[in-house]
Each structure stands twice: as structure tokens, then as C-alpha cells.
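cron nightly-structures :: item 1 of 1
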Amino acid sequence: MRIKKCMLVFYSIILIYCLFLFVGKLNTYAWFTDEVRANGDITNATTKDLLSISTGDVIYQSKCEISQKISIKNISGIKIPIKLVDQSLLLHPGETFNKTMKQKVSCEEKEHHYHLLGLNHYIDEMISVPLDQNKLSGMENNSESPQDKTNISPKSMNDKKVDPKENNQVDKKNSVQS
């Protein structure tokens, strides 16, 4: 009985050895030895891929102050939190943020920068605006220079009232005759 058990163990070991040898010849161990090669490029999105930034013309005011319209449009498919100078907001896809920036700058400054942050500092851009030194210093020296009159009522635009009795030049062609 003991010999039968030894022979059974011996045949079992030989059978297992032959199975492993056979499996090795049929390339069924490919899960462990074969390699797969794939090539691809992963690129991160840039600010130009996410936001469209445009700046308007610089309006020079007195005492080295400038005003400029800045427009930021979300051209991506995700919501983007942004912060420009002192204002924070969440731009939804396709939404545009418009703001007129009024700031006092140094009279010798040749370029002004607005700091734009977004997506936990993933977007960290400086919007650079070139300044015209002649216009900037010209506004400083000229106290009677034209100002930005976008939000001024008509009475404050230095209009003079004309009394028709004092002015003898009444338009007779357009007056109604009875």
C-alpha cells in the first residue's frame, strides 16, 4: 500500500511537470511575458484653450489715471472660477465677464498689468497693456483735458443755456407762423 501511494505521488509530480512544460510551449503564459506598447501624447490645456481674453482701448484720464474695458469669455465646457484684480466670480461655459477697469498708474509706467487667476492657480496670467507715454504724461500736464464722459449727465458736460430773447439769431425757417 505504501508503494502504491509513492507511485501515485510520483506520477502526480510528473504529470504536473509535464503540464507546466506543455503550457509553456503553447504560449499561454502571455499574460506575464508579453508586453504591449502604446504611444500617445498627453497635453494640458492652456489658458487660450479655456478662456478668450480681449482688452479694449485705453482711455487716458487726468492725473495718470487710465480706464480700459477687459472682456473674458469661457470657451471651455467647464465652470471656471476666476479672479481679476479684486473681483472673483464663476464663469459658466459660454459666459462672458466684462469690466471697465479704472486705475491710477505711475506716470512713467510704459506697460500696465492685470493679474488673472483661475482654477486654483492653474490659470495664472498677466494681462499686459502697453501705455502711450505721450498721452499719459500729456494728461498730467493738461488740467483742462477731455475726460471720460461715459456716465456723465448732459447738464454736467459744460453745456451753456441759451436764452432766445438774448440771442437774436432765431431760426425763422423752422418757426411756426400763425
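cron nightly-structures :: done
Strands lie at 51-55, 59-61, 65-74, 80-84, 87-91, 96-104, 111-118, 123-130.
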